Amino acid sequence: MQRQFETELRELKNRILAMGGLVEQAIEKSTLILQTRDPVTVTQVKAIERKINEENMAIDNICLEILARLSPVAADLRLILAIIKINTDLERMGDQAMNISYNVDHYHEDGEVTMKLNLPSMAVLVKNMVREALDAFMKDDIVLAEKVLQSDDAVDQFKNNVFNKMVEYMKSHPDRIESALDMILIARNLERMADHATNIAEDVIFACTGEDVRHGVGKAAREGQEKPN
Amino acid sequence: MQRQFETELRELKNRILAMGGLVEQAIEKSTLILQTRDPVTVTQVKAIERKINEENMAIDNICLEILARLSPVAADLRLILAIIKINTDLERMGDQAMNISYNVDHYHEDGEVTMKLNLPSMAVLVKNMVREALDAFMKDDIVLAEKVLQSDDAVDQFKNNVFNKMVEYMKSHPDRIESALDMILIARNLERMADHATNIAEDVIFACTGEDVRHGVGKAAREGQEKPN
């Protein structure tokens, strides 16, 4: 049974990895819209998000079925529970990508501001966090998972920077308030994706070690930096 | 064993209910800060959030332990998995309450605007959704869970209304942009809490019926209303 379980687990992990690939694509394409304002890309993000949702439900079903049929314990059980949570976080990241692409109508109202903020660089940071969190998951790499937890600070700083710059911009350009608000909201969408990536990293640490690091010093410190929200 | 399992499940459900009570308190107190700007209340929200986090970890541990020891199947297994997810959603609501209270420094910079927006009424809507979602959970009440899913629309409308009003306000009061932004962000925090309540309702339906309603028509319709995000 253990061998069969291992085969099924490997398949399941590969599916999570593939779902992570879809999330990376969704991040890439949704932020590409910032530069291109291309409605085709919006349709693509929608299609990717639909696939993510389908995978989300399929993976949950497989986990339920494995739990019922094989009743795993100890590290194997922790891994299945981690997969259930990681699955949820990846699905929510898809929702965030959709939120970014929803606002497409406002983009490029002020291309100069968009350029200055460098949101695509923020998106690259977030995408790397997702990739590293899933690498850590695939390789049971706690050190890499810890690195993901630390990367969250840079994303928070990026978000705060966008917030402060846009507040100043709105004060001097009250006619451009909607566009500036869009930038603030997009930065927040990206930051929420980064939060989901840190959740995944925490789940990886839990699956590997049995240690629950969610509300420990690391997380408290990160939460402290959330202000202003 | 079934009897023992039922006793343990009842205890677990009561703990989730108590955690929901803490979340309701957190919503109430964090939005009270809007009116009172009382730093004591901020400390109270912090303490409640800490309790929520402790419960979050304790409940996850109990679920893991029950799965390992009793290997439940079918409806019992679905219920445990639903509890794991509900537990996560309640914890994230605590984070949102904290986010609201973080911004306390800006509150009352413009009491008139705060009054006009009626955010406390929005908070009551959200609190009711949490209570009804957990009532549905305790009583296996699918009809009530469906009602929670529908309530989400009213919260979204509230959020959009706050957004639109504050955009207009910022245009005519560029010196009050930070305060207006706070209102937008608080409305979004509340709306995210409502999203978590709908997640709980979906988990209740899944636990009761085995039917996964997450990405069905209902959810798609709700997601469609998210714009502008």
What portion of the residues of chain A fall into strands of 2 or more residues?
under 5%
Query: How many angstroms separate the termini of chain A?
Result: 48 Å
Number of strands of chain A: 0
Q: Which structural category do the helix and sheet elements of chain A fall into?
A: mainly alpha
Biggest interface, chains and residue tallies: A-B, 47 and 47 residues
Poorly predicted residue ranges of chain A: 217-229
Largest sheet report of chain A: none
- Multimeric organization: homodimer
Q: Which sequence of SSEs, written as H and E, runs from N to C of chain A? A: HHHHHHHH
- How would you sum up the global shape of chain A? elongated
Task: Using the CA coordinates, give the radius of gyration of chain A.
Answer: 19 Å
Summarize the structure in words.
The structure is a homodimer of 229-residue chains. By secondary structure, chain A is mostly helical. Chain A has one domain: Up-down Bundle (Methane Monooxygenase Hydroxylase, Chain G, domain 1), CATH 1.20.58.220. Chain A is built from eight helices and no strands. Chain A has helices at residues 2-36, 39-70, 74-102, 111-117, 119-139, 142-172, 177-209, 217-224. In chain A, helix 1 runs antiparallel to helix 2, helix 1 packs parallel to helix 3 and helix 6 (142-172) packs antiparallel against helix 7. Chain A is elongated. Residues 217-229 of chain A have low confidence and may be disordered. Chains A and B meet through helix 2, helix 3, helix 6 and helix 7 of A and helix 2, helix 3, helix 6 and helix 7 of B.
